[in-house]
Amino acid sequence: MYDGIVQDLIDEFGRLPGIGPKSAQRIAFHILQTPSFDVSRLSQLLAEVREKVRFCEICGNVSEQDRCSICRDPRRNQTLICVVEDAKDVAAIERTREFRGLYHVLGGAISPIAGVGPDDLRITPLMQRLADGTVQEVILATNPNLEGEATATYLSRLLTSLQITVTRLASGLPVGGDLEYADEVTLGRAFEGRRSV
Amino acid sequence: MYDGIVQDLIDEFGRLPGIGPKSAQRIAFHILQTPSFDVSRLSQLLAEVREKVRFCEICGNVSEQDRCSICRDPRRNQTLICVVEDAKDVAAIERTREFRGLYHVLGGAISPIAGVGPDDLRITPLMQRLADGTVQEVILATNPNLEGEATATYLSRLLTSLQITVTRLASGLPVGGDLEYADEVTLGRAFEGRRSV
């Protein structure tokens, strides 16, 4: 629809997740029409991220060094590991400031439909981290959906042989949410997990 | 939340229109975790677009040459000009394949709130294009909102002195839409503009 490279740029933005053709067009035109938008800075960051960012050799979180800032921090509770699917989940949990232990990023969840089995996840490195007996509790913080639950179940069975407490994040009503709009499964979980006040 | 440049890249994507912090994070991680994503191609396109793409000296549409492909095309109807707010609107109208005339991009719409007056739009170049008497009809295709209507009204008054037919795109129910869900103004316009069948 557009002359050559404008369309090429739109197509390239359209390849990114969550960006449809309309958004891609809007972004390309914004870049075209905003002289103050620093194109070279974005390009430089893209190149730098590709070059410098790797995954922490211990936990699998994103890092600019061999070990991420959390694994390097001696003040973190070394007896507690929170297992998550993705590095994005680490950032989400860090934002709560509720958790001061370490993480382990699996790199996905078990999903027969997507062809992801236990061997595709970073489960062996997790078992190695647990081998020396330092860790006393593993918190399974995989997503509360089919794949995440399957992964949590798989891991909890695998961990029963070790002398480690295994816990799962609570399911229930989202804070600020409306009971009326909660789905049945979530509402059911909220009843199951009810606490005395 | 993230180590250095990952957060920088997220922030940079977050500066683009329509991309919130969550989408920006998702995009940055996609680029990080997808080795096949061609970072250098995106960078190259960004630089090329900045370097090569300009605005057509006649109509103001995006173009890789001094004149855009539409203004260069002798088969287009030279007696008909469709006035739009933005180059994106040219692409939207071209997609319909209904219009074979020329365009004129204003570069916005009159908006006292945003501080955009007639002098900020490409109205003088439009008047110059109309001066030689070739153009017989001007179609005002500004957006059917407050600013677009104000701009259309302003232009239609300005053009009454010339021997040119001035028309406005029809307002009414969107095709495939549901009458029940149409807002009152649109439904009112649909009644006003009703045609015998």
From TrEMBL, chains A, B:
- Any idea which UniProt keywords this protein has? DNA damage, DNA recombination, DNA repair, Metal-binding, Zinc, Zinc-finger
Q: Give one Pfam family.
A: Toprim_4
Query: Any idea where the Toprim domain is?
Result: 79-174
Ranges annotated as C4-type zinc finger: 56-71
Q: Does the keyword DNA damage apply?
A: yes
Zinc: present as a keyword of the record? Answer: yes
| Coiled-coil regions listed in the entry | none
Question: Which residue positions does the secretion signal occupy?
Answer: none
Its domain of life reads Bacteria
| InterPro entries in the record | DNA_Rcmb_RecR, Rcmb_RecR, Rcmb_RecR_Znf, TOPRIM_dom, TOPRIM_RecR
Annotated TM spans: none
Q: NCBIfam families in the record, alphabetically?
A: recR
Q: Which PANTHER family match?
A: RECOMBINATION PROTEIN RECR
Q: Record's family?
A: Belongs to the RecR family.
Tell me the function of this protein: May play a role in DNA repair. It seems to be involved in an RecBC-independent recombinational process of DNA repair. It may act with RecF and RecO.
Q: What is this protein called?
A: Recombination protein RecR
Gene that this polypeptide is encoded by: recR
